[in-house]
Amino acid sequence: MASIAPLLLAIIFGAASEPVGDEPASNFQPTNDLGQVVIDRVQTVFERKGALVDVQQTFQLSCRGGKVFQRDSGYMIKLARGASEPSPMGENDASIEIAADSISVNKPISQAGLIVSVRYNLPIRNNTVILDQTLGTEIVEARAFSVWTKGDVFLSGTGFTSQETRKLANGLETLAIFARNLGDGHLVVRLAGLSDGIQKPRSIFTLYASIMILALGIALWLRREVSTRR
Amino acid sequence: MNSFGQLLICIAALLSAAGGAFVLLGSHKPRFLETGKNLLHAASLASAVSLVVLVFLLLVHDYRVVYVRDYADRTMSLGYLFMAIWGGQEGSLLLWAAIQTWFTSAVAVWGTGRKGVDSLLPVALCFLAMLQVFFFDLVLFHSNPFEPLGTIAAHGIGLNPLLRNPYMAIHPPTLYVGFVGFSVPTAFAIASLVDRSPENKWLISLRPWILFAWVFLSVGNILGMIWAYEELGWGGYWAWDPVENASFMPWLTGTALVHSMMVQERRGMFHGWSLFLVSSTFALIVFGTFLTRSGVIQSVHAFAGATAGPYLLGLIVAQAALSFGLMIWRRKRTTDSPEIEQVVSKESIFLFTNIILIISALFVLLTTMSPLFAEVLMGEKVAATPELFNKGMVPLGLILFALIAICANIGWRKPSLSKIGNRILFPSLIGFVCAVVATLAGAALSGAGGLMGYAPVVSIGLLGFVTSSLARDMTRLIINSMKHDRSSKTARRRLGGQLVHLSVVLLFVGFTGSAFVEEKSLTLSLGESAQAGDYQITFLGLREDNNYERKAVMADLEIEKSDEKLGILSPAKHVYHSHPGQPTSEVVIRTEWTEDLFLVLGEVDMARNAALIKVKINPLVVWIWLGGILLVIGTIIALVPPNWLGSLFSAYVAKKRYLAKVSAIIASSVIVSVSTGFATNLALSMIAIAGMGLLGMLYFFGSALCGISRLEGGE
């Protein structure tokens, strides 16, 4: 059975916290090597098998005063082996659709967010079921997307100019071009800012605390029982 | 919102742990006990609110949550969205934990100030609290219904089509109530063994709890049978599936416990038996849950992808070690009781009944586990078939059935043998005549060999024997109770018990009918007719019936019997949009008093307008369902005292502090939810109810803190 190498792709746009417009944001450092960076990153985790790319639209966001000011069009990278449409999907097809769309103007970026639509197939392996899910075609709240750099540092911009978003879009396009050679893929789109990292510590604390409280209670009771019997 | 739900589970777990510790320390200091009870009440409200949050997430289709994505979709109706709470492992475990907290709260209220039970309350509540902590931590770590997806799904997958049946709306919750209900006598059993007092009357006080749990377990089993009969499409209601057996085994030992309790109440005997049966029943309940959720045994009922096995196995080992270890340590106290004075006596029959029930439970357990044992020990793959189960359970069932009648004709202690003989003569004759008539009518199954072939004859004979015994006993009971009003409470209990036995008669009528099932497969084209039993079936054609939820292909069949047109029945095949690869059969059942006509649509050929129709004629099935109804009625009569309304009011007045608080919370929740537009905005109502629950939780937590501060003040 074909093996699947995971491709971890996380794209983060930070929430705007200060007015931006045509002026560059204070802490975003766009790089001309963005595309190369993305390719390098993907290369470390992905095995080339080949896929078609259908770049349908371009996308950019303009922000002003922490709000989405202008939206051009959505950006979609669609990969499908032997087809321009993602369905029906074959056993070894992988598809990623990254679309930013349906963002209302004059809304804070924390409410605008981005839509990430990821569609992927896992081939049958050990009689497991093929998963075929389209994730996320609705507006999500306060989701940040970032592009990984070589040093695994997230680029979390506080707002982007048109020029910056165009560069980011170029990075995505580069990814798409690279992913033309994509084969089987396990695609994970991770949205930062979610609490999945917070859940585990809370659960661990609860487990340890509840056991300790009960153990303490039982120990004190036993001590009392023994002393009473004496 | 899902983070909030998870936070509530954490809070509930911590409150349960703190409550358990405080109630345990309350065995020496009453104020600790009050504090602990308040903490446990707060935990029960926290768990209730967490369920409300889950309902809210399902109602608003929040597909950022894994559980909502997996078990809800936009085509599901409101009822099924609620049902999705227990549609998956995560939600069902949270529901179990929540029910556990509610039972603990109820025990805390009920046991306070009750003679014989009050002294055992601290340890019992601590045990129940530990169970709560276990289930909450299992939910947190292993099966979290509030797990975030990490992104947002465009749509949900929705409930498995097999679960989209009204009986699935009530079958799991009733079973869980039964399962959790048996944790209460287990807790008190452990408490009594830990306690230095030799008082054994606590079990009698727990009678309502045991009966309550038992009847819910019974109803849960029967509802599961109805669901299987209607939904699975194979025409039967019991397949000895491992998950079915998982709820049947504790029912067997629970039934033995109910009988054992009667002997203890009447004669002060069987205390050791009762303790053993209490512990075994709960161990089997957890073991059954282990089977359902561990994946060790394949079953159509098992939760998909479930791997909570190791934790549940740990719970079984811990509980069994604690219960049986304490029993061994206190064996002198548990075995010291009056002896049976005569072999032929009611006590003996009860003892024999217990032994048969335990053997039955053991047989079911070992046969269910035999595929696993065979694979592990011998490397062979074997299947535990229904025929194998029937070979063992049919004779055992018939023996138990006979014991019902024998017991009704035998008295306590040292009954006169001649009187027994006189009483048993007439029913025996009736039974014998029934058996002879059955044999002459060809009831013996020539296909099945040996004893199994005569099982229907024996069953019919026993039906006559048992029915006539019960009828005479119940008539005598009613007449006596009308004459001597002072014994009405006892008479009510006995009448209720005999009604339950009568329900077993009805069940056996249905079970006997299953030996005479007729089955036929018909391939019909448009306009063609075929005969199946006494029915003439004419195929009128195929049609499609699609809606937002599913696509359906239906076959219209005109049914005639003895030249009388009975109408048109339309079995169907459904394919839900959310589960395109899982077509389900929607069977059609035409029920009469004597038989069911069961129709299943098999393969269809739309082009040629032809279909394969499976026809099954199931005799006497409706008597099983009637037996279930009678079982509930009988238990209610046995359980509820004659002046129940007055007793309830007295209890309310006596415990008005606690009940007033609970009533106020419930009433406020109802009022607020109605005023926020229950009918039009259910999601908003959920928020209102959650708010009320949180206020209640804070109230009890505050009371507990006040209690702690008074303790620190040296009061």
Query: Please, what is the oligomeric state?
Result: heterodimer
Fraction of residues of chain B in helices?
55-70%
User: What general outline of chain A do the C-alpha atoms trace?
Assistant: globular
Measured between the Cα atoms of the first and last residue of chain A, the distance is: 70 Å
Write a compact overview of the structure shown.
Chain A is α+β, with helices and mostly antiparallel strands.
Describe the structure.
The complex is a heterodimer of chains A (230) and B (715). Chain A has 230 residues and is α+β, with helices and mostly antiparallel strands. Chain A has helices at 34-45, 109-112, 162-179, 196-229; strands at 6-9, 52-57, 61-64, 67-71, 76-80, 94-97, 117-121, 132-135, 186-189. In chain A, the strands form four sheets. Chain A has a three-stranded antiparallel sheet, with no helix packed on it. In chain A, strand 3 (61-64) and strand 4 (67-71) form a beta hairpin. In chain A, helix 1 (34-45) runs parallel beside helix 3. Chain A is globular. Chain A starts with 5 loop residues before the first strand and ends with a helix. With 715 residues, chain B is an alpha+beta fold. Chain B is 65% helix and 10% strand. Chain B has 23 helices and ten strands. In chain B, strands 2, 3, 4, 5, 6 and 7 form a six-stranded antiparallel sheet that branches. In chain B, 50% of the residues are buried. The mean pLDDT of chain B is 83. The chains are: A alpha+beta (230), B alpha+beta (715). At the A-B interface, strand 8 and helix 4 of A face helix 1 and helix 6 of B.
